[in-house]
Design goal:
By secondary structure, the protein is an alpha+beta fold. Helices cover 52% and strands 9% of the residues. It has helices spanning 11-17, 22-28, 45-58, 64-68, 79-85, 90-104, 133-151, 169-176, 205-239, 247-254, 258-267, 272-288, 295-301, 307-318, 322-329, and strands at 5-7, 41-43, 107-113, 117-124, 159-161, 179-181, 188-192. Strands 3-4-7-5-6 form a five-stranded mixed beta sheet. Helix 8 links the parallel strand 5 (159-161) and strand 6. Helix 5 (79-85) runs antiparallel to helix 6, helix 9 (205-239) crosses helix 10 and helix 9 (205-239) crosses helix 12 (272-288).
């Protein structure tokens, strides 16, 4: 799946409501200052984490994540969140959340139900660094809020497990209504399994059907578009060496016009340039893990005009030079992961 999250533009107002200057926040996170003014707001996992780290650093409120995880205003909710509240039970709601996340972004909600207890954990498949504490607070607070709002019962988890060191114990235990286990191996909420069987007083089958049908159609259309994005990546992997393929070149390879390809990529929430950059970055990692590939040769294989262009692009991606990245990450063995469809030209 493409490393792409879609953010609601309503986040700009929510940040402002908590006295966080949006322009300064985005600048601090290294994101475009006009991000939330775009028709569709998309960020990578690294950008998402940078945004939430910046929220933590710019807010003096240790409860900012907990507060942002509780949204009382109905009109600010995404249709998927409304569908969740219309579910039949807390367990049904969790399953809907998990399925929607899995289909739409590189984020997974792992639900491990046992006889006595059930754990709920968020996992980011493209993450290269720990989850920001404020993001953990937000998503776990949101999950608990879904259960409490839907059942109209003040559900209290058995415990909450956090990877962070001991910090703000009283605040967290008061909010979640349970003890907190710090320095744990994961970030998770653990509920009594019986709580998942609690029916939702907010259950609305008619509204659930309407929203559910719309969401299924949206997911189907998106998956078709995402498949096109993956096809573009495959084509780029085969044709980058020695040149930078154009939109027209790739469209020709895929048997469609440039305008049609551009439209399908736009529907997937990504541009052709972004796909090119993602492909180059992935391949750069592949080549740099092989000592037999010289840096100048890697630049050629990635379609850069010269080595300096490659060095500048790589520094923008990783914040370091290709040689330093290679030293830090080590060289791959001869059986290193190979990229499908790539052949090196001597």
């Amino acid at each position: 799946m493409t490393d792409r999250f879609r953010l609601s533009s309503t986040w700009a107002q929510r940040f402002a409501d908590h006295q966080i200057a949006v322009t300064a926040l985005l600048r601090h996170a290294g994101l475009p200052t006009g991000l939330f003014q775009q028709e569709k707001v998309h960020v990578t996992t690294a950008e998402l984490f940078a945004l939430w780290r910046s929220v933590s650093e710019m807010s003096s409120d240790p409860a900012i994540g907990l507060k942002l995880g509780t949204e009382p205003r109905f009109e600010r909710n995404h249709p998927s969140a409304i569908a969740v509240i219309c579910s039949r039970s807390f367990g049904d709601a969790l399953e809907r959340i998990a399925r929607y996340k899995q289909l739409t972004c590189p984020e997974e909600i792992r639900i491990d139900r046992k006889a006595q207890d059930t754990s709920v954990e968020f996992f980011y498949s493209e993450a290269k660094e720990p989850q920001p504490d404020v993001l953990v607070d937000l998503v776990l607070s949101w999950i608990l809020g879904v259960g409490r709002q839907g059942t109209n019962v003040h559900i209290s988890p058995l415990r909450i497990e956090l990877t962070r060191p001991v910090k703000h114990r009283g605040l967290l235990e008061s909010h979640f209504g349970c003890r907190v286990r710090f320095k744990a191996g994961r970030n998770a909420l653990i509920f009594r399994s019986g709580d998942l069987d609690r029916p939702f007083v907010t259950h609305n089958e008619e509204l659930l059907t309407i929203i559910g049908t719309h969401m299924e159609s949206e997911l189907k259309a998106r998956n078709i578009s995402v498949n096109v994005a993956e096809q573009v990546k495959d084509t780029l992997r085969r044709s980058l060496a020695g040149k930078r393929p154009t939109l027209q070149d790739v469209g020709r390879e895929l048997g469609m016009g440039a305008r049609t390809l551009q439209r399908r990529l736009t529907d997937a929430g990504i541009t052709f340039q972004q796909v090119v950059e993602e492909t180059r970055r992935e391949l750069a990692h592949h080549y740099l893990k092989q000592r037999s590939v010289e840096l100048s040769e890697a630049a050629f294989l990635l379609g850069f005009e010269d080595a300096n262009s490659f060095f500048r692009a790589f520094h923008a991606w990783e914040g370091t030079s290709p040689s330093e990245w290679r030293t830090r990450n080590g060289a791959a063995a001869t059986e290193a992961l190979r990229c499908d469809g790539i052949t090196r030209k001597g």
